[in-house]
Write a structure and sequence with these properties.
The protein is α/β, with parallel strands linked by helices. It is built from 9 helices and 7 strands. It starts with 27 loop residues before the first strand and ends with a helix.
Length: 261
């Protein structure tokens, strides 16, 4: 494997603590490991088990968040830096407002995870450990097959090194433990996860766009699609004479396209 230089440290959010992190109402848990090691499966199992105990949390899965932060990913080193900076900032904002967060992301460099440790509190890192050969056999997204075909040159563990956690709070071996067993081990080792988030009031008005992208009812579908792509949005308010008459979503367009097939 080619030895790539570690990325530069990720800047903190502008108003994040500059010294020791202050405790936020919500906690953050980072599940790290090779691609196909079982991070997403473990995250979902943990969320279900926590919900059964009355503790709600959200999952920031790297594949899902990447669609928002980097809709057309190139997986370059610079883009990875920006992506993980955004991922950490998003987790910090959520925990600040009392939302418990499980991050399921490889984060091949320790620098990315260390940046989270510096600003997120309470915070814990779980190493979802699985041998590379087992991950290759699983390969649910075909990433390793693409790497072997040289379609991907920087896959963690193959194209670039994966830096294992040095001091993880928990290590779970997913080649030997079932998702249920792995989740139970994490819950037993981290009592902080059983603390419900303490939500702070955040009205949607604080987040909504003041100048949203809109269309008229007679707008051509092709033009609407171009607007969605250009602004990286999944829905368009439809206004007629300044009055909201509907919302066009990606699902509407897909349903329309399916009827044409």
């Amino acid at each position: 494997m080619a030895a790539n230089p570690s990325p530069t440290p990720i800047p903190r959010p502008e108003d994040a603590p500059q010294e020791a992190p202050r405790e936020t109402p919500g906690w953050a848990l980072w599940l790290t490991g090779l691609p196909a090691s079982g991070k997403t499966t473990l995250a979902r199992t943990l969320r279900r088990k926590l919900a059964e105990q009355g503790v709600e949390c959200v999952i920031l899965d790297s594949d899902e968040v990447r669609r928002v932060l980097t809709p057309n990913p190139t997986y370059s080193s610079e883009e990875r830096d920006r992506f993980y900076r955004g991922l950490v900032d998003l987790a910090w904002l959520l925990t600040r407002y009392g939302v418990n967060v499980i991050i399921a992301a490889t984060a091949t460099w320790r620098t990315y995870r260390q940046a989270a440790r510096q600003i997120l509190h309470p915070f814990a890192e779980v190493y979802v450990r699985c041998p590379l050969e087992v991950c290759k056999k699983r390969d649910p997204k075909g990433l390793y097959a693409r790497a072997e075909a040289r379609e991907i040159t920087n896959l963690p563990g193959v194209g670039v090194p994966y830096e294992e956690p040095e001091r993880p709070a928990v290590v779970v071996d997913t080649d030997r433990l079932s998702p249920e067993e792995a989740a139970e081990r994490v819950l037993a080792a981290l009592p902080m996860l059983q603390r419900p988030g303490r939500a702070r009031t955040l009205p949607v008005a604080a987040l909504m766009s003041r100048e949203p992208v809109t269309v008229a009812p007679e707008t051509e579908v092709a033009q609407a699609i171009q607007l969605m792509l250009a602004h990286h949005i999944g829905a368009l308010p439809v206004l007629e004479e300044g009055r909201l008459v509907g919302i066009l979503t990606e699902r509407d367009i897909l349903a329309w396209a399916a009827r044409l097939l």
